[in-house]
């Protein structure tokens, strides 16, 4: 399959934008982290032995999506495989004007996310506990996910959907092989996060923007 693949380094300025955004919403994001850790003791939302500092890294990582033009221009975001609300919950906290839908196949995880959203007074969050195959698409949503899907598997589940654009946070070394399983030509921008961030946490991580060539 002939894809249009672009390789882009994340600019330092964009990494700084993410840090500024985190600082601006630090109180609410820290409250989210506290509630996520509380629920994680009851339900396995993230690794049981995860530290607060590591969760904070994952929240900042989720905000990388805000530096994409695909995120900027959308009003509706579907976060599939959300787990404990990553990346969708931090996005909802920082962008209350956008509608964020949290989706996961595990009902208990979605229940925890609903409770956290209610406690944080996030009126812009909706949820569903089902496969992404059963979620309704109008065509103008941005689908996002953080380390939850292989690209080919996700596209197969979306075959009957009028999906618009996708952004995935995943390991950079696995992207090209996963794209080989896509059944239609795609426009793909692979953004290496390490040039912008110098922390070891970001080594090997990428943001992947995907759209159909026919609509780009």
Automatic annotation (TrEMBL):
Keywords, sorted A to Z: Cytoplasm, Methyltransferase, rRNA processing, S-adenosyl-L-methionine, Transferase
Main location: cytoplasm
Entry binding sites for S-adenosyl-L-methionine: 81, 86, 132-133, 146
Source organism, top-level taxon: Bacteria
GO CC terms in record: cytosol
Single GO molecular function: rRNA (guanine-N7-)-methyltransferase activity
EC number: 2.1.1.-
Places the protein is found: Cytoplasm
Similarity remark: Belongs to the methyltransferase superfamily. RNA methyltransferase RsmG family.
Role this protein plays: Specifically methylates the N7 position of a guanine in 16S rRNA.
PANTHER family reported in the protein's UniProt record: S-ADENOSYL-L-METHIONINE-DEPENDENT METHYLTRANSFERASES SUPERFAMILY PROTEIN (PTHR31760:SF0)
HAMAP family: 16SrRNA_methyltr_G (MF_00074)
Protein name: Ribosomal RNA small subunit methyltransferase G
Annotated organism of origin: Gracilimonas sediminicola
Encoding gene (name): rsmG
